[in-house]
Specification:
The protein contains 11 helices and 13 strands. It is α/β, with parallel strands linked by helices. The protein has a single domain, classed as NAD(P)-binding Rossmann-like Domain (Rossmann fold, 3-Layer(aba) Sandwich), CATH 3.40.50. α1 packs across α7, α4 packs parallel to α5 and α6 packs across α8. The radius of gyration is 18 Å and the shape is globular.
Length: 312
C-alpha cells in the first residue's frame, strides 16, 4: 500500500487530506503536537527545524509527501517575517531537496495570493506573480525553492473552505460562527476569489499524485465571487440572516497585510491534465452543510491535543 506523509497535518487542508487519503492509502501525519487521537499515524515533528527533515522522512518512509505546513495567517506573517520565511520558504525547499534524493514524490501547497490582483481577467499558471505582502512573498519564494531542487514536484496554488480543528481557519467557519451568534460582520465586495470545498481540494490533489502529474497548477474553485457574496451564500444555505453581513471595501479595513482585489484563477490546466472538472461551488457548499448537520466539526475537534495556534 502507498504510504503518504502529510506535513502540517493539523491544518485545515492537512487534516482533510489525511482523512480523505486514509480510505485508500497508509497515512502518516507530521504534527508538532496538536493532534492526539487522529485515526491515522501521527509523527511528532518540529517543522521549524530543517535539521529534522531527514529523521522525519526516515521514520515515515513515505512514497508520497504533501507539504501542507505553512504560517498562513497573513497579518501574523507581517508581524513575524523571519518565522514566515523559515516555514513558508526555507522548509519547503529543504523538504523538496530531501525528497529528490530519497526518490519520494513531492507535492507542495502554495496560495492564490501570489498575484497582486491588478489583472481584470483570470490568472493562468503562465501569468507573472507579484506578491503584495510577507505571506505571499514567502509562499512564492517557497514555490521557487521547491522547483529549483525538484523538477518532478507538484506545486498547487489553492484557496479553500471547510471545517478546521480550531473552528477558526476558514472563512466559511467565520461566517457560520458569527451569523449563528447574531453578530454583524463585514464582507468585502472588492476582493474576488475562487473558493472550493477543502475535501474537493484533497480529492483533486490525490488524483494529481495518482496520475503522476508534475509542475505548477491552480487548484481552486470553478466560480469566482466576492468575499461578500461568499458570506451571503453561506448565510442562505445555513438559514442565517444575510442582513448581518455589511458590504464594504477592503481598503481602510485596518488589516495589516494588503489583500489582492482579484484572485480569479483559471483551472483549465488541472481539469485538462487530470481529465476531471472542478466541482461547482454549490456542490461543495452542500457538502460543507451536510458535514455540519452530521456533527463533523465537533468530531474533528476531538482530535486536538492543545489550544490551537495561527500556524499549521
Amino acid at each position: 500500500m502507498t504510504r503518504l506523509l502529510v506535513t502540517g497535518a493539523s491544518g485545515l487542508l492537512g487534516i482533510s487530506l489525511a482523512l480523505e487519503a486514509m480510505r485508500e492509502y497508509e497515512v502518516i501525519g507530521a504534527d508538532r503536537g496538536k493532534l492526539k487521537s487522529a485515526p491515522f499515524q501521527i509523527l511528532r515533528a518540529d517543522l521549524m527545524d530543517k535539521n529534522a527533515i531527514d529523521s522525519i522522512l526516515d521514520s515515515a518512509q513515505p512514497d508520497w509527501l504533501v507539504n501542507c505546513a505553512a504560517l498562513a495567517n497573513l497579518d501574523e506573517c507581517e508581524e513575524h517575517p523571519d518565522r514566515a520565511r523559515i516555514l513558508n520558504t526555507e522548509f519547503p525547499g529543504a523538504l523538496a531537496d530531501a525528497c529528490t534524493k530519497k526518490r519520494i514524490r513531492f507535492m507542495h501547497i502554495s496560495t492564490d495570493a501570489v498575484f497582486d490582483g491588478k489583472k481584470t481577467d483570470l490568472y493562468t499558471e503562465e501569468d507573472q506573480p507579484n506578491p503584495l505582502g510577507v505571506y505571499s512573498r514567502t509562499k512564492l519564494d517557497g514555490e521557487r525553492a521547491v522547483q529549483e531542487v525538484n523538477a518532478e514536484a507538484i506545486v498547487a496554488r489553492v484557496n479553500f473552505f471547510g471545517w478546521s480543528l480550531s473552528g477558526k481557519h476558514s472563512l466559511g467557519e467565520f461566517f457560520v460562527a458569527n451569523l449563528s451568534a447574531d453578530k454583524s460582520v463585514s464582507g468585502f465586495t472588492d476582493v474576488v476569489f475562487c473558493p472550493i470545498f477543502v475535501n474537493h481540494t484533497a480529492r483533486f490533489l490525490l488524483g494529481m499524485l495518482e496520475k503522476g502529474l508534475c509542475g505548477l497548477y491552480h487548484v481552486v474553485g470553478a466560480q469566482p465571487m466576492s468575499k461578500y457574496q461568499f458570506g451571503v451564500e453561506i448565510a442562505r444555505k445555513f438559514g442565517l440572516r444575510e442582513s448581518l453581513i455589511s458590504p464594504r471595501s477592503v481598503e481602510g479595513s485596518g488589516l495589516a497585510a494588503r489583500r489582492s482585489h482579484n484572485l480569479w484563477l483559471s483551472t483549465h490546466k488541472v481539469s485538462t491534465d487530470l481529465g476531471r472538472e472542478i466541482p461547482q461551488f454549490s456542490t461543495g457548499l452542500d457538502e460543507f452543510y451536510t458535514q455540519y448537520q452530521q456533527g463533523y466539526p465537533q468530531k474533528i475537534r476531538g482530535y486536538q491535543q492543545e489550544t490551537d495556534e495561527k500556524s499549521t
